[in-house]
Design goal:
The protein has ten helices and four strands, in the order ααββααβααβαααα. The chain is mostly helical. The chain has a two-stranded antiparallel ribbon with strand order 1-2. It has a two-stranded parallel sheet with strand order 3-4. InterPro entries: Bact_transf (IPR003362).
């Protein structure tokens, strides 16, 4: 109950504070490339329920036809998209998802159904027992995931066999010990990482 109240309060404050900067980012996205401001994609949430995540669009509108993994200096990323991704500003609209209850500020990052289908049954139950989040310990550990995938001979295999299992283990550890105090610690670490670039 305290975690949800904290999520709603911070999401509301965040959306209010970021309203004007958000409109400026939206305008930059529209001027940079044709297409919608927001990117929406089906993800798997708490209890296995599907929801559509909100992000600022950072790629061309037809980007998903070439696959769902973003590898290194992906040519599908727009000019403004590069700037947004470097600062993680594309994630800001997920405050909307937090407000409506699909997500939390802190929790395992929500995956697309095709990768959730690869979760071992025991880990799936644990990871999906909590709301997915905007940030979590695994996100901080793998903040340079795109570069790791770019260096791999087979990015898809690298993600499925190396990165995904490590993320799942970290997510399961978080879910088993989730608390408001721990969430605040993860948020502070996230802010520190973002400020350091």
């Amino acid at each position: 109950m305290a975690k949800r109240a904290f999520d709603v309060l911070v999401a509301l404050l965040g959306l209010l504070v970021l309203a004007v900067p958000g409109m400026c980012l939206a305008l930059a996205i529209k001027l940079d490339s044709p297409g919608p401001v927001f990117f929406r994609q089906e993800r798997v949430g708490r209890g296995g329920r599907l929801f559509r995540i909100h992000k600022f669009r950072t790629m061309r509108v037809d980007a998903e036809r070439a696959g769902q993994l973003t590898v290194g200096d992906d040519q599908r990323i727009t000019r403004v998209g590069h700037w947004l991704r470097a600062r993680r500003l594309d994630e800001l609209p997920q405050l909307i998802d937090v407000l409506v209850g699909s997500m939390s500020l802190v929790g395992p990052r929500p995956e697309v159904p095709r990768y959730v289908a690869l979760y071992p049954a025991d880990l799936r139950a644990v990871v999906l027992s909590v709301r997915p989040g905007i940030t979590d310990p695994a996100s901080l550990a793998f903040r340079n995931e795109g570069e790791q995938l770019a260096a791999a001979a087979d990015p898809e295999r690298e993600y499925v066999e190396v990165i995904l299992p490590a993320k799942l283990a970290a997510a399961a550890h978080y879910a088993a010990q989730a608390s408001l105090l721990r969430d605040v610690g993860v948020l502070l670490r996230t802010v520190r990482v973002l400020l350091r670039g």
